[in-house]
Design a protein that fits this description.
Elements (H helix, E strand, L loop, with lengths): L2 H10 L1 H18 L3 H24 L7 H16 L1 H10 L5 H34 L2
Helix pairs in contact: 1-3, 2-3, 4-5, 4-6, 5-6
Length: 133
């Protein structure tokens, strides 16, 4: 297993961690249910999503050249984490490599959507903490 697959494997577990943390937090703060149910529900929901991420991103072989594969993966991760980079890459590669441009555009879009969801969750947490003061 190469370094790139190791990084993909590591990144694919992030959704599982986020889902489990949110479910346990919701049970502790809002539902006040038994912690056994919270951890069980977190595993039931988180494990299939992690499986899908692992199957899709870690162990799927893409039809690209080996020397270019690491660069494309790096730019996909950058496009997700910094969506403006994905937008620039999408526009730059639009005419020369449209399939690659589409991938960068999708990664940037997913990054924006993820950022919005994180901001909404954070806002809910902050508003809840402020109202409990």
């Amino acid at each position: 297993m190469g370094f790139v697959k190791f990084i993909k494997f590591f990144i694919s577990y992030i959704p599982n961690f986020i889902i489990q943390t949110i479910i346990v937090w919701l049970f502790d703060n809002f539902i006040h249910g038994p912690s056994v149910i919270a951890y069980g529900l977190a595993a039931i929901i988180g494990v299939p999503i992690t499986f899908i991420f692992l199957k899709k991103f870690t162990f799927t072989e893409h039809k690209t050249n080996d020397e270019n594969k690491d660069g494309i993966t790096l730019f996909k991760v950058l496009s997700f984490l910094i969506p403006i980079v994905g937008l620039v890459l999408c526009v730059e590669k639009c005419n020369s490599k449209p399939k690659e441009a589409k991938v960068y555009g999708k990664c940037a879009l997913y990054g924006v959507i993820t950022g919005i969801v994180i901001c909404i969750i954070y806002s809910i947490v902050v508003i809840n903490d402020i109202t409990n003061l």
